[in-house]
Design brief:
The chain is of the alpha+beta class. Helix 3 runs antiparallel to helix 4. The radius of gyration is 17 Å and the shape is globular.
Length: 155
């Protein structure tokens, strides 16, 4: 078991585009449906695996391009440490003052380590100034507990 780290920052409006953050339905719309529905399905099916937006289900990071993996660790504590570094770097830009508190950030890091040790994924999100958004994810791999059928992007 190992863990991959993902980081995304961008406009909140992009983050809010949920159609590109969820995998397409396994079955395309039946023939005879509205052409715009069929076209939208094709767009989402083509874009979801490659777009850098954070998926709604954390495990789906595993099907994204390998280039989006920021780092990989075999130890949960190392992955949580990376998370702590990212939190420290971005905390001054957090909109909510309470989220900048160092005790709060340390709790998030410790909680992440415990969840990773159990085989779970970690996903955190924060509003930044300008209306921007920060998404940090740590995904357990080989296998992923919630989506064991998803392949490792690094191997």
């Amino acid at each position: 078991m190992h863990h991959h780290g993902y980081l995304w920052t961008g406009p909140k409006a992009s983050f809010d585009n949920e159609a590109l953050r969820r995998p397409p339905h396994p079955e395309p719309p039946p023939a005879g449906r509205k052409p715009e529905l069929i076209q939208r399905y094709r767009e989402v099916a083509a874009e979801f695996p490659t777009v850098d937006l954070p998926p709604l289900e954390t495990a789906y990071w595993l099907i994204k391009p390998r280039s989006l993996v920021r780092a990989t660790w075999s130890e949960a504590k190392e992955a949580a440490s990376w998370l702590g570094e990212q939190l420290g770097e971005y905390a001054p830009r957090f909109v909510a003052e309470a989220q900048r508190d160092t005790t709060h950030l340390a709790r998030l890091m410790n909680s992440a380590a415990a969840r990773l040790e159990s085989g779970a994924d970690v996903s955190l999100g924060f509003y930044l100034e300008r209306p921007s958004y920060l998404s940090l994810s740590l995904v357990t791999c080989s296998p992923n507990r919630s989506k064991p059928e998803l392949p490792c992007p690094v191997r």
